[in-house]
């Protein structure tokens, strides 16, 4: 008996699904050097351009000088320091929730929240296009696990009829690979009508969405009763690292008691919390970042339509170009790269079979001239491919 890893890897390669890690040799930003090649990149989730902001860098530096580097221990032992606590209070204020709890990563926040809230005898219902961490969390919880059709309240309602025990409805706020926004007012109404709780992972909504960057719940004006469990991540528009769950005092106390990915891990470096406090301030107050981003989104959509690309129904910085076939998506991405443009091809199993795509993301750090260069590159590649990209 042996692990035939070579055969498994060869099969993945043959299906055009083999993954490689581009080596980034510069900080995040529109202009990068990847594998030795200067490129104009459209694939970072640093939507507001804060990951390499001088004030955020300075806050990290000053935080390290004051607090040292390591978190030292779990939050429950001696790892919960003043900057962590101050950040939790600032995140509660941003979300308009009574409290927020800091996690080390979004993956862990999702695992922690779902497994602390439901278990055997309960039900978890998820959008079929939810982020992998939410799907993994549902499976790990031991609750009855069911997926409803994408953003479909009717499909959810049918499953709610059959739900037993405590029922958690879980959805992305902004869908990470499609860019569309969950129909939260309707989903919240369905969940409430059945006494279920709605949990929203708004990793891609905080920053770009809402008048003050408060994400999808600010966008729709949804209360704690509508969305009892709200998750955000700090590695995207906040430009730092980590995640949080916001909600009632009882929710947060329950997570501190029962969320294993919260309890059994070392707290993040306190200096990182100092950096996030600064980026949170910029995220809330510098409205020009959101406004400029929206200008670029409109510019890109209009230009892409003019060259005959079929975009997905997205008003967010995530603007995927549907290709279909995985091999063709990789080829398209390589052709762009030859022209100095970096756009990642996203393939199964990250997205459903037959829906490989180029995931274009725009950030406030891009200029209109750079978006124009992307559009020209796309038009050029399309012409060379000699066919509609949607009919592979
Ligand atoms: C990125 C992402 C996560 C994971 O967050 P990390 O902090 O990177 O672990 C969770 N949910 C969604 C929707 C994401 O896009």
CATH architecture of the largest domain: 3-Layer(aba) Sandwich
Pattern of helices and strands: HEEHHEHEHEHEHEHEEHHHHEHEEEH
Shape: globular
- Intertermini distance: 40 Å
Total number of helical segments?
14
Q: Which CATH first-tier class of the largest domain would you pick?
A: Alpha Beta
> How would you name the CATH homologous superfamily of the largest domain?
Type I PLP-dependent aspartate aminotransferase-like (Major domain)
Number of strands: 13
Strand order of the largest sheet: 3-9-8-7-6-4-5
Which regions contain 5 or more consecutive residues with pLDDT less than 50? Answer: none
Verbal overview:
The chain is of the alpha/beta class. It folds into 2 domains: 129 residues, Aspartate Aminotransferase, domain 1, CATH 3.90.1150; 232 residues, Aspartate Aminotransferase, domain 2, CATH 3.40.640. Helices cover 42% and strands 16% of the residues. It is built from 14 helices and 13 strands. It has a 7-stranded mixed beta sheet, with helices on both faces. A 3-stranded mixed beta sheet has the order 1-2-11. Helix 5 links the parallel strand 4 and strand 5. The mean pLDDT is 96. The protein binds pyridoxal-5'-phosphate (PLP). Pfam families: Aminotran_1_2. InterPro entries: Aminotrans_II_pyridoxalP_BS, Aminotransferase_I/II_large, AON_synthase_class-II, AONS_Archaea/Proteobacteria, AONS_Proteobacteria, PyrdxlP-dep_Trfase, PyrdxlP-dep_Trfase_major, PyrdxlP-dep_Trfase_small.
């Amino acid at each position: 008996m042996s692990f035939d890893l070579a055969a498994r890897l060869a099969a993945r390669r043959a299906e055009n699904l083999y993954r490689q890690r581009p080596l980034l040799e510069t900080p995040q930003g529109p202009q990068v050097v990847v594998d030795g090649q200067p490129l104009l990149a459209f694939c970072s989730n640093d939507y507001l351009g804060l990951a390499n902001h001088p004030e955020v860098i300075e806050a990290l530096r000053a935080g390290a000088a004051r607090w040292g580097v390591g978190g030292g221990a779990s939050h429950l032992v001696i790892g919960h320091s003043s900057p962590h606590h101050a950040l939790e209070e600032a995140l509660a204020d941003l979300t308009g929730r009574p409290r927020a709890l800091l996690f080390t990563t979004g993956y862990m926040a999702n695992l922690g929240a779902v497994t602390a809230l439901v278990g055997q005898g309960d039900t978890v219902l998820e959008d079929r296009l939810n982020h992998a961490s939410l799907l993994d969390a549902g499976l790990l919880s031991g609750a009855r696990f069911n997926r409803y059709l994408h953003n479909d309240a009717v499909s959810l309602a049918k499953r709610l009829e059959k739900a037993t025990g405590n029922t958690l409805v879980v959805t992305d706020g902004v869908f990470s690979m499609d860019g569309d926004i969950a129909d939260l007012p309707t989903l919240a109404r369905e969940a409430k009508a059945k006494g279920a709780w709605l949990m929203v992972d708004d990793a891609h909504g905080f920053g770009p969405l809402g008048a003050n960057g408060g994400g999808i719940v600010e966008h729709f004006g949804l209360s704690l009763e509508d969305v009892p469990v709200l998750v955000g991540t700090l590695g995207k528009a906040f430009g730092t690292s980590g995640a949080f769950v916001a909600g009632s005092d009882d929710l947060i106390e329950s997570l501190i008691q029962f969320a294993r990915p919260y309890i059994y891990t070392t707290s993040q470096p306190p200096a990182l919390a100092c950096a996030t406090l600064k980026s949170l301030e910029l995220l809330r107050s510098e409205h020009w970042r959101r406004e400029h981003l929206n200008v670029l989104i409109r510019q890109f959509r209009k230009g892409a339509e003019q060259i005959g690309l079929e975009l997905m129904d997205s008003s967010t910085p995530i603007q995927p170009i549907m290709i279909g076939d995985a091999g063709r998506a990789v080829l398209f991405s390589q052709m762009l790269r030859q022209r100095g443009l970096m756009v990642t091809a996203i393939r199964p199993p990250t997205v459903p079979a037959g829906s490989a795509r180029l995931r274009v993301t725009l950030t406030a750090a891009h200029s209109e001239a750079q978006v124009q260069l992307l559009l020209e590159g796309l038009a050029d590649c399309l012409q060379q491919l000699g066919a509609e990209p949607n009919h592979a």
